[in-house]
Amino acid sequence: MHEWQLMTQVVKMVEEALRHAPSSKPSVVRLKVSTQSHFFEHDEATLQSVFAAAAQGTVAERAALEILPVSVTAHCRLCETSCEMHELLQCCPRCGSASLEAESVPEVVLHEVVVKE
Q: Coil, strand, or helix at residue 32?
C-alpha cells in the first residue's frame, strides 16, 4: 500500500519539523506533489483517510492535509517543444507525440506545516 508508506513518511517529516517545538500542534500539513506522481491515482478522500490513520497518536493527529499539485516541464524528443505537463500521461501539444521527457522533480515535498496558536 504505497499511500500508507507515503503518509507515514509525511507524519515523520512533520514530527521532525516540530522536534524543537514539542508543544506545537499542527493544524494543516501542506504537500507539494508533482502532477507526474502516482499519488494522484488515488482520490483525495482516500489520501485524507490514510493520512488521518497514519497521524493517529502523533503530533500530526487532527491536522488537515492539503495537497498542492505542481506541474512539471517536459521536452518533446520529436519536435523539441517544451510544455507544462498537468497529467501523468500527456501527449505533446504541438505534434501529438507521446515522446515527452519530463524534468526530474521530487514526487512529494512537505511544503508547509501550519501550527495552531
A: strand
Question: CB of 27 within 8 A of CB of 63?
Answer: yes
CB 70 within 8 A of CB 34: yes
β-bridge pairing 100-102 and 108-115:
unpaired
The domain of 79 spans 2-9+26-115
Residue 16 counted as domain residue: no
Rounded to two decimals, the pTM is 0.81
Nearest Cα to Cα of residue 7 among 45, 48, 41: 48
Yes or no: say if 90 and 99 are a contact pair by the CB < 8 Å rule.
Answer: no
Domain count, the chain: 1
Here the cell at position 93 is 501539444
Residue 57, judged by CB atoms within 10 A of its CB (0-12, 13-18, 19+), counts as exposed
- Side-chain half-sphere exposure of 4, counting CA atoms within 13 A: 3
Residue pLDDT, tens place only, 87-97: 777 899 999 99
